[in-house]
């Protein structure tokens, strides 16, 4: 394989995180990765840097530092106000070649994925995409990235021993958000950049942001599997009563019963709700990882030997299609009585 632009011998023992921002606000996934990066850096005795691009975004520097960054490299320019892959790739490539970090991490957002793919080609290094876990060996300095395949049925551990930077993208919600330290002090490195409009073949005419679903933030998650036979209206009614939202395993998504953005698990969204309901779900591992960090899990399944019960705090052996309507009725009656 062709050599990367800088070698293992040239690297700095540093973890860099691309700080994805939209409209001048850092994306939550960037802060999640900073939190994980702080843990990895402390274990290895390395430093943790953030890379921030935009226009008039210096107010976000301290926020990144409070989540664990030792130093923020910042590039500000009107042409960087909104993400364009050409401009961002140009600036980030030069920053990485100058800083030579051993590890470079991006959120697996549309922008992060687009940027990381371009950079991997430019820097002639590898890219591990949509990782669900990261480990850093303090002795060897090797980053191990965990990714899944074949619908979550296979877990692969990937390393890049000979090329730098070691690059990975991480899905939102995979890592918990650490606590802010408002007293934390860090350094700021202002990058001098040369960029003109003629270098950017694309032009942003209009930004239209659709209303998506963010299951990573819901306090109550009501998930359905094959056992609910596509009756997600019933689960939505329960979720509304609980001030939560609805998720699903992969089969109902593949069958078209619910949107793919609501798929929970290794090939979907990883969530950390206060309460998770698993309704008519057998409990395959690639789903369980999507709710295993919930504070409390309620499982409803007609099969007493369903694997989901091994992960649940309350196990209800019953037909979800019978139990959920009864639960909804009881909640409604209780609230009516309380209001009276």
Tell me the strand percentage band. 25-35%
Any idea what the CATH superfamily of the largest domain is called?
HUPs
Shape by Cα distribution: elongated
CATH class annotation of the largest domain: Alpha Beta
Question: Uncertain regions: pLDDT < 50 for 5+ in a row?
Answer: none
Report the radius of gyration as a whole number of Å.
22 Å
Mean pLDDT: 92
Oligomeric status of the shown chains?
A: single chain
Helix content: 25-40%
Largest sheet: 7 strands, parallel
Structural write-up:
With 340 residues, this protein is α/β, with parallel strands linked by helices. It folds into two domains: 8-199, Rossmann fold (3-Layer(aba) Sandwich); 215-339, 3-Layer(aba) Sandwich (Rossmann fold), CATH 3.40.50.1220. 27% of the residues lie in helices and 26% in strands. The protein has eight helices and 17 strands. It has helices at residues 28-44, 59-66, 85-99, 110-123, 232-241, 250-254, 285-288, 320-339, and strands at residues 12-19, 21-22, 25-26, 47-54, 71-76, 101-107, 127-131, 133-136, 143-149, 154-158, 166-170, 187-190, 220-224, 245-248, 275-279, 296-301, 314-317. The strands form four sheets. Strands 7-11-6-1-4-5-12 form a seven-stranded parallel sheet, with helices on both faces. Helix 7 (285-288) links the parallel strand 15 and strand 16 (296-301). Helix 3 packs across helix 4 and helix 5 (232-241) packs parallel to helix 8. The protein is elongated and about 65 Å long.
């Amino acid at each position: 394989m062709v050599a990367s632009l800088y070698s293992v011998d040239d690297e700095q023992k540093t973890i860099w995180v691309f700080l994805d921002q939209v409209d001048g606000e850092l994306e939550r996934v960037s802060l999640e990765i900073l939190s994980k990066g702080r843990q990895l850096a402390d274990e290895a005795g390395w430093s943790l840097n953030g890379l921030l691009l935009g226009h008039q975004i210096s107010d976000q520097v301290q926020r990144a530092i409070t989540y664990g960054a030792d130093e923020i490299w910042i590039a500000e320019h009107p042409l960087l106000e909104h993400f364009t892959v050409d401009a961002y790739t140009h600036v980030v490539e030069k920053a990485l070649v100058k800083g030579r970090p051993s590890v470079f991490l991006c959120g697996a957002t549309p922008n992060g994925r687009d940027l990381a793919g371009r950079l991997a080609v430019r820097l002639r290094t590898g890219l591990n995409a949509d990782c669900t876990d990261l480990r850093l060996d303090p002795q060897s300095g090797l980053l191990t990235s965990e990714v899944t395949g074949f619908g979550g049925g296979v877990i692969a551990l990937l390393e890049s021993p000979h090329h730098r930077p070691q690059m990975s993208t991480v899905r939102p919600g995979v890592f918990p958000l650490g606590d802010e330290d408002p007293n934390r002090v860090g350094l700021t490195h202002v990058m001098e950049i040369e960029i003109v409009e003629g270098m950017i073949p694309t032009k942003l005419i209009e930004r239209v942001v659709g209303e998506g679903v963010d299951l990573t933030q819901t306090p109550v998650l009501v998930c359905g599997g094959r056992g609910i036979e596509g009756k997600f209206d019933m689960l939505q009614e329960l979720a509304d009563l609980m001030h939560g939202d609805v998720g699903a395993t992969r089969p109902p998504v593949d069958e078209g019963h619910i949107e793919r953005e609501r798929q929970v698990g290794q090939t979907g969204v990883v969530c950390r709700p206060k309460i998770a309901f698993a309704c008519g779900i057998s409990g395959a591992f690639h789903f369980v990882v999507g709710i295993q960090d919930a504070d409390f899990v309620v499982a409803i399944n007609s099969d007493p030997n369903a694997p989901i019960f091994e992960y649940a705090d309350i196990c209800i052996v019953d037909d979800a299609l019978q139990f959920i309507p009864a639960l909804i009725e009881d909640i409604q009656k209780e609230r009516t009585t309380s209001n009276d």
